[in-house]
Amino acid sequence: MEHTLKILGKASSINVRKVLWTCEELNIPYEREDWGSGFASTHSPEFTRLNPNAQVPVIIDEAGVLWESNTICRYLAGKHPHHDLLPHEPAARARVEQWMDWQATDLNASWSYAFTALVRKDPEFQDAHRIANGLRDWNQKMSILEHQLATTKAYVAGPRFTLADIVIGLSINRWLMTPMDRPDFPAIDEYFQRLAQRPGFLKHGCNGLP
Measured between alpha carbons, how far is residue 127 from residues 74, 132, 150, 178 in Å? Predict the structure, then answer.
């Protein structure tokens, strides 16, 4: 009998929400436990035995323990191959993973300082010059996404909804909810409206959390 998936991490975490939205798309039942700021400490020995990085999310199923949100999403999609979230054909799959990796590295690196300053209001992240540079870099990365979406006229990796849209859709929500000046990106606006038709996005993406 298949074990129920257990997800460790608070529901407000953007990385936990990637996993929750993926589960919604795949109709995977799960149990979730609150871990992270405001809840059980991820720095406790109990948690770091599962993830030495002390970060959420972590999942536990019959195969064991797994961490890193984008990897978890890939794993869940691969475990349920009847769905098109992660294509089997190598080139199509690589295009999806290319944009997932871009989200986790280039895009995340661009917003890290400015988001921490403007939304989390961390007193150690209040250098005006670094905030301005961060906002400029963030918008520049979003211009790359704007060009891609203007080209596909559908979803990030092509004509079909994939895992790339889950991780990037949440990143767009964060960009839109951060108090900052943004360029006019019509392709991103249209794309965001397409995502808003999906129940998983309404539940875990466009939910008032940046």
Answer: 37, 9, 34, 17
The domain made up of 90-202 is a member of CATH 2.60.34.10:
no
CATH architecture of 5-79: 3-Layer(aba) Sandwich (3.40)
CB-side neighbour CA atoms (13 Å) of 52: 0
- For 4-48, the pLDDT digits (tens) are 999 999 999 999 999 999 999 999 999 999 999 999 999 999 999
The residue ranges of every structural domain in the chain are 5-79, 90-202
pTM: 0.95
Q: How far is CA 191 from CA 36, 62, 128, 194, in A?
A: 31, 36, 32, 5
Q: Are strands 5-8 and 30-33 parallel, antiparallel or unpaired?
A: parallel
